[in-house]
Structure prediction request, 426 residues.
Amino acid sequence: MAERILVVGNGGREHALLWKLRRDAPGATLFVTRGNGGTAGLAESIPIDGTEIESLAGFALRERIGLTVVGPEVPLANGIVDEFSARGLPIFGPTRHAAELESSKAYAKALMRQHGIPTAAFETFDDPEAAISFVERDGGPLVVKASGLAAGKGAVICETTESAIDAVRAILGEGIFGAAGEYVVVEELMRGEELSVFALTDGESIMMLGAAQDHKRIGEWDTGPNTGGMGAYAPVSIATPELLSQIEREILRPTVAALAEDGRTYRGIVYAGLMITAEGPKVIEFNARFGDPEAQVILPLMESSLLEPMAAIANGAALNDTAAVRWRKGSALTTVIASGGYPGDYEKSVPIQIPPDLESEDVLVFHAGTAIREGRLLTSGGRVMAVTALGMDIGEAAATSREAAERIEFHGSYFRRDIGWREIRR
Prediction:
């Protein structure tokens, strides 16, 4: 087992990964790229960005890193796994071509169409006039998506034909998402309930990691603009064993097999963002890494080792098909505390006060947009931290998470008080 581990990234997801790795390997030495205000007690921060791939590979060689875990999508899309593998460095995550499952929605949709994997009907365009003609012919409601990586904000839900045309013009004509919007995917707007499902894969075998549900909108009762995620919870009652088995059988296994057939053997974690429609589960999108803030509820519930299967995948070994993931009983819910103004403009370097007795076995604070300067904890991003609570049921976890979030203070702070409302209503 790896004794020296590097985690690439410095957000809430990476803080949660470090927390889990520390529990799995108490004696390991952990490193993180430009750590945040909450990771200092878990890992040594190194002054290299997650996008500085050659520098990171050099660091990993010098420091004899036995396992590198990639948190965010951009290093994967830029080929960090290819570079590390070429130098004989074990790394957890898919290669650049395999990661196009996330970094190119156009590729992912074409793959699903070719292999009969259930998803929304769609067409792909690089010419705005052709896209507008399609929209006018098809009519709304539609979803217009930038094909590339747009920090979770590249999908525009359009209830009317006019709003879909505006979205096409903004993405293809005005280039609001830059290179990520060189192509757009125009697809039907699916109706149903969203579900995030996670699985580890060695390129052939699948190890299911369960499901979570996140809340993307800034406002309570899921109103307002999309964000990177304002909260999440797990488990989700609609994710029955029967439904998860169907998702594994009809979506996850066929996708991994299709990628291998396409010469893009996929090793790492597959995150399927799904819509549970009246016709069954359909893919909204795939991600090539742990979700954020879903990782902050999945990982605290995981009692068995995450390090062991990740290390096997990173070293080119097969997953142990007989190994079952063990889960803690009960529920986990996380509330994201954001800076005032997010997802628009917001103030940075605002002092944060966290009561020293706030965290416990059942209350965890995962930092995202924080930094320590001159001994003071300050905000440094839009999503500042995620407050995860564990409880016997979703109601208990929700109440504990909200109460803990209310005790964290900084000027302009904002969080939703309704995370998990669908589950609690059920």
The chain has a mean pLDDT of 95. The radius of gyration is 21 Å.
